[in-house]
C-alpha cells in the first residue's frame, strides 16, 4: 500500500469500480457465496413471479364469476320488469270493473275482514 491508496480487492476499491469492470473474486468462498446468492435470488424471483401469476389468475376467475352473476341478474331484472308490466295492466283492467272501487260507499274507510273477498264473483 503506497501513498494512501486502498489495497487491491478491498471494500473501498470494489465500491468505486464500475459494475462491468470488477476484478475476479479473491477466493473460492467469495465465488461460492456469489453463486449461492444468485441462486437464492433466482428462486425468490421465480416464487414471486409464480405468486403474481396465481394472484392474476384468481382475479380473472373472480371477474368471470362476477360477469356470469351480472348476466343472470340482468335477465332476472328483465323478467321482473315484464312481470311488473303485465301485473300493472291486469290491475288497470281490474280497476275498471272492481265493485269496491266503483261504489262511493267504499271511499269511507270501513274495516273489512277480507277485502279481497268483496272483489270476487259470487
UniProtKB/TrEMBL annotation:
Cross-referenced Gene3D superfamilies: 1.20.5.170
SUPFAM superfamilies the UniProt entry points to: Leucine zipper domain
Residues in BZIP domain copies: 31-94
Lineage of the species this protein comes from: Eukaryota, Metazoa, Chordata, Craniata, Vertebrata
Lineage: superkingdom: Eukaryota
One protein family per Pfam: bZIP_1
Sequence similarity: Belongs to the bZIP family.
Species this chain originates from: Phocoena sinus
SMART domains attached to this UniProt entry: BRLZ (SM00338)
UniProt name for this protein: Basic leucine zipper ATF-like transcription factor 3
